[in-house]
C-alpha cells in the first residue's frame, strides 16, 4: 500500500508538468505609478488591480501558480522620477518586468533604458505615435491600452464612410503631459491624405473663440481635445454663430475620464444650459468601448472596496475601473502567458526580447473581455461613438462602435445617418495658405500650422528625427516665421525632455 501511494505520487509528479506545465520562477516587478491622486492612473487606483491579478495568477492549481511575483511600487512624477529610480538600480538587482510609466516623456526615457537592459516594459500609457516604432529604442515596449493612432483609426473609418475631406483639430496644449497634443497627433499621423489643420491654445491663455470659429467655418469636421468647460464654451459660441446647423461635424475625444462625457455634460446649472443642450445635439464623442463580462463585476467591486480603504473619499468616480486600471491588470496576465510560453521553449525570464515577442501578435482573455495585441506589440482598440439621441432630454447613447481587430465600423440601431451627413459639401480644394505667418492675425493665441508647414513637418517626422518624433509644434507667431530658429527650438525641447537616457 505505501508502495502504491508512492507510485501514485510519482505518477502525479511525472504527469502534472506534462499536463499543465507549471514553471517555478521568482519574478521581480517594478511598477511606476504616481502617488499623486489627481491622476487617473495614480498608484492608489491602479495598484489594487495589479495585486488582484497577482493573487489570481498565484492561486494554486493554475498554469501560472509557479510564478511568484515580488512587486515594488515606485513613484512617478511624469517627469524624471521613474528614470532616476531605474538608474539607481544599475548596480543592483534589475527587475524582470517593468509596468508603467504612463506619461509619454517619462515613459520614453524608461523604455529606452529598459530596452537597452533587455527588460520587458508593459504600459497602459505611452500612447503617443512615436512609440509605434519598435525597431530600436522602444523595442521592449508592449502597449496594453490602445494608442492614439489606434483611436485615430475610428476617425479614419468615419471619414471614409461619410466621405468627409477636411478636418480642423483643436486642442489645448499644456506643455507638460501634453495629452491632448498627443491625441491630436495620432489623428494627424494617420490621416495623411486629408486636408487637416491644427489649432492649439495654451492652458494659460484666454481662448480666442472668435479665431476658432473663423477656422471652423472653413472645415467640414471639427475634432476637439480639451477640458469639458472649454468644449462647452466653443460649442456655445458655434451655436450662436449657427455653425451647428449640420454644415459642420463636431467631435470631442475623451478616452479615459468617463465622468466628463455623455448625459448631462452640457449641463452646468447656468443660464446657458438650454443653448448648450441644443449645441451639444451636434457634438459627438469618441471614447473607449467598454465591455463587461461576469468576472468583471467582482473585479470592479474589489477595486471600489480597496480604493475606499485607501482613504480617498472625496472623489465620486474613484471606485470606477478605467482603462489604466484594467490595462495594468491585464499586463500581469499577458506577461505570465508570455513568460510561460518562453520558458516552455527553453528560454529564461532574463531574455527580455524573447519574452516580449510572446506578448505580441496574440489574443487573450483580459479582465473585461478579449484583448488583442497586434504584431507590433500594440493593443488593437475598440472605440465607441456617442451622440445625443434625445434632443428634448439631451441624453446620449452609443450609436456606433469601431473594432480595431478587424477594422469594422458597426452601426447600432440608434445610429442616424442624417446626423452624420453634411448638409453642404465643401469644394474639394480648400484654400491652402502658403505662408503660415500670415495666418495668425492675433499672434498671442495659438498658431495654425498650415498645410504646407504640416506637410514639411510630416516629412520631418519620417526623416529628421531619430529620437522621439513630434509632428506638430505649437510656436509663437514670430518663431513660426523663423524656420531655422524653429527647428533649433524643436531639437532643444526634444533633447531636454527625452534624451536624458
Ligand atoms: C498633483 O498633481 C497636480 C496636477 O498635476 C498638481 O497640481 C498638484 O500640485 C500635485 N500634488 C502634489 C502633492 O504633488
Ligand atoms: C473627469 O472629468 C470631470 C468632469 O469634467 C472632472 O471634474 C474631473 O476632474 C476629471 N477627472 C480627472 C482625473 O481628470
Ligand atoms: C470576489 O471573489 C473572491 C473569490 O473569488 C471573493 O473572495 C470576494 O469576496 C469577491 N468579492 C466580492 C466583492 O464579491
Ligand atoms: C462603490 O461601492 C459603493 C457602495 O459600497 C457604491 O455606492 C458605489 O456606487 C460604488 N462605486 C462604483 C463606481 O461602483
Ligand atoms: C534570446 O532569445 C533570442 C531568440 O528570440 C536569441 O536569439 C538570443 O540569443 C537570446 N538571448 C540570450 C541572452 O539568451
Ligand atoms: C501573427 O500570428 C499569426 C498566427 O496567429 C501568423 O500567421 C502571423 O504570421 C503572425 N504575424 C507576425 C507578424 O508575426
Ligand atoms: C443617458 O440617459 C438615457 C436615458 O436615461 C439612457 O438611456 C442612456 O443609456 C444614457 N446614456 C449614457 C451614455 O449613460
Ligand atoms: C469584428 O470584430 C468584432 C469584435 O470582435 C465582432 O463583433 C464583429 O462581428 C467583427 N466583424 C466582422 C465583419 O468580422
UniProtKB/TrEMBL annotation:
Membrane topology: Single-pass type I membrane protein
Gene Ontology biological process terms, A to Z: signal transduction
Membrane-crossing segments per the record: 439-464
Pfam families assigned: ANF_receptor
A GO CC annotation given for this chain: membrane
Record's keyword terms, sorted: Glycoprotein, Membrane, Receptor, Signal, Transmembrane, Transmembrane helix
Protein name, UniProt field: Natriuretic peptide receptor 3
Amino acid at each position: 500500500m505505501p508502495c502504491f501511494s508512492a507510485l501514485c505520487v510519482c505518477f502525479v509528479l511525472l504527469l502534472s508538468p506534462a499536463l499543465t506545465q507549471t514553471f517555478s520562477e521568482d519574478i521581480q516587478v517594478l511598477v511606476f505609478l504616481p502617488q499623486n491622486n489627481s491622476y487617473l492612473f495614480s498608484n492608489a487606483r491602479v495598484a489594487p488591480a495589479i495585486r488582484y491579478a497577482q493573487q489570481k495568477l498565484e492561486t494554486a492549481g493554475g498554469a501560472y501558480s509557479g510564478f511568484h511575483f515580488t512587486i515594488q511600487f515606485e513613484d512617478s512624477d511624469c517627469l524624471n522620477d521613474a528614470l532616476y529610480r531605474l538608474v539607481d538600480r544599475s548596480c543592483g538587482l534589475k527587475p524582470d518586468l517593468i509596468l508603467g510609466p504612463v506619461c509619454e516623456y517619462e515613459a520614453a526615457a524608461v523604455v529606452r533604458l529598459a530596452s537597452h537592459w533587455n527588460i520587458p516594459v508593459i504600459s497602459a500609457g505611452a500612447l503617443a505615435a512615436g512609440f509605434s516604432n519598435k525597431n530600436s529604442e522602444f523595442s521592449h515596449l508592449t502597449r496594453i491600452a490602445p494608442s492614439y493612432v489606434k483611436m485615430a483609426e475610428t476617425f479614419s473609418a468615419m471619414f471614409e464612410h461619410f466621405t468627409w475631406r477636411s478636418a480642423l483639430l483643436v486642442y489645448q496644449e499644456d506643455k507638460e503631459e501634453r495629452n491632448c497634443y498627443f491625441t491630436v497627433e495620432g489623428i494627424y499621423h494617420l490621416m495623411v491624405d486629408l486636408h487637416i489643420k491644427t489649432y492649439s491654445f495654451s492652458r494659460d491663455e484666454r481662448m480666442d473663440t472668435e479665431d476658432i470659429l473663423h477656422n471652423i467655418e472653413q472645415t467640414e469636421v471639427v475634432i476637439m481635445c480639451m477640458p469639458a468647460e472649454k468644449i462647452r464654451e466653443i460649442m456655445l459660441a458655434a451655436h450662436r454663430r449657427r455653425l451647428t446647423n449640420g454644415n459642420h461635424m463636431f467631435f470631442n475625444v475623451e478616452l479615459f475620464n468617463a465622468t466628463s462625457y455623455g448625459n448631462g455634460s452640457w449641463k452646468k446649472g447656468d443660464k446657458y444650459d438650454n443653448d448648450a443642450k441644443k449645441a451639444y445635439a451636434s457634438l459627438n464623442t469618441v471614447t473607449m468601448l467598454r465591455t463587461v463580462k461576469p468576472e468583471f463585476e467582482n473585479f470592479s467591486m474589489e477595486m471600489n472596496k480597496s480604493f475606499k480603504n485607501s482613504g480617498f473619499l472625496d472623489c465620486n468616480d474613484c471606485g470606477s475601473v478605467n482603462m489604466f486600471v484594467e490595462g495594468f491588470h491585464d499586463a500581469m496576465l499577458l506577461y505570465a502567458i508570455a513568460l510561460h510560453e518562453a520558458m516552455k521553449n527553453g528560454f529564461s525570464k532574463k531574455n527580455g526580447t524573447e519574452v516580449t515577442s510572446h506578448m505580441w501578435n496574440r489574443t487573450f482573455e483580459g479582465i473585461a473581455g478579449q484583448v488583442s495585441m497586434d504584431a507590433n506589440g500594440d493593443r488593437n482598440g475598440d472605440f465607441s461613438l456617442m451622440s445625443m439621441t434625445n434632443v428634448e432630454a439631451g441624453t446620449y447613447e452609443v450609436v456606433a462602435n469601431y473594432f480595431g481587430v478587424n477594422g469594422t465600423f458597426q452601426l447600432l440601431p440608434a445610429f442616424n445617418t442624417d446626423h452624420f451627413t453634411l448638409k453642404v459639401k465643401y469644394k474639394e480644394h480648400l484654400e491652402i495658405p502658403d505662408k503660415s505667418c500670415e495666418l495668425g492675425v492675433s499672434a498671442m493665441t495659438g498658431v495654425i500650422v498650415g498645410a504646407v508647414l504640416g506637410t514639411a513637418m510630416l516629412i520631418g517626422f519620417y526623416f529628421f528625427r531619430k529620437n522621439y518624433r513630434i509632428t506638430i509644434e505649437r510656436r509663437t507667431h514670430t518663431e513660426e516665421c523663423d524656420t531655422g530658429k524653429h527647428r533649433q527650438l524643436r531639437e532643444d525641447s526634444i533633447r531636454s525632455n527625452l534624451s536624458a537616457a
